[in-house]
Design brief:
By secondary structure, the chain is α+β, with helices and mostly antiparallel strands. The protein folds into two domains: 51 residues; 93 residues, no CATH class. 37% of the residues lie in helices and 27% in strands. The protein is built from six helices and seven strands, in the order H-H-H-H-E-E-H-H-E-E-E-E-E. It has a three-stranded antiparallel β-sheet, with no helix packed on it. The chain has a two-stranded antiparallel ribbon with strand order 1-4. It has a two-stranded parallel sheet with strand order 2-5. It is elongated. 5% of the residues are buried.
Length: 169
């Protein structure tokens, strides 16, 4: 008889294929990558630690621990210059302040202008990415589109719409 000790389960569970140190190194490696791909993670683990998992869930858990999530990438225009945008916004703000009296009396009309693009096809898909940052893929012209510009007279609430078609493909 073993008493209470005899009632305890002797099974300790299976050992992980990655040691704690290896797992930490894999997570550190993941966090240094700019883009992520499951097959790249598989290759890294095979090459560095001679480890391969049959279940993708284990790779997903590693990605999750590295704070990398599955998300839809967002296009970014590599030609966009934030400094020029900021400078232009300051110019517009100054003009509005300088002409405030004429705006209030209706001598000058201010429009809020916006655009909407109706797009054909969808090139950008979901990728693994850092949970704290939105993935951006530089694609200057990647879709055919129809663009509608709209303007709203801010004081009279009149809406104006114009269609502009482009074919970027």
């Amino acid at each position: 008889m073993q008493g209470i000790e005899g009632l305890k389960l002797g099974y300790k569970g299976s050992k992980s294929y990655l040691t704690k140190e290896q797992k930490e190194k894999a997570i550190e490696w993941l966090q240094k990558q700019e883009y992520w791909d499951l097959s790249e993670l598989e290759c890294y683990l095979i090459e560095k630690f001679d480890v391969f998992f049959k279940a993708h869930a284990i790779y997903y858990n590693l990605l999750k621990e590295a704070k990398i999530s599955w998300q839809k990438a967002q296009a970014s225009n590599p030609r966009k210059n934030e400094d020029l945008v900021t400078e232009r916004n300051k110019e517009i703000e100054k003009k509005l302040i300088d002409n405030l009296q004429d705006i209030k009396t209706g001598k000058i009309i201010i429009y809020a202008i916006d655009e909407v693009h109706l797009l054909e096809g969808d090139l950008i898909s979901h990728l693994w990415g850092d949970t704290k940052k939105r993935l951006k893929i530089p694609l200057p012209n990647y879709k055919n589109r129809q663009t509608y510009y709209g303007a709203l007279d801010l004081f009279n609430s009149k809406l104006y719409v114009e269609e502009y078609k482009t074919g970027n493909g």
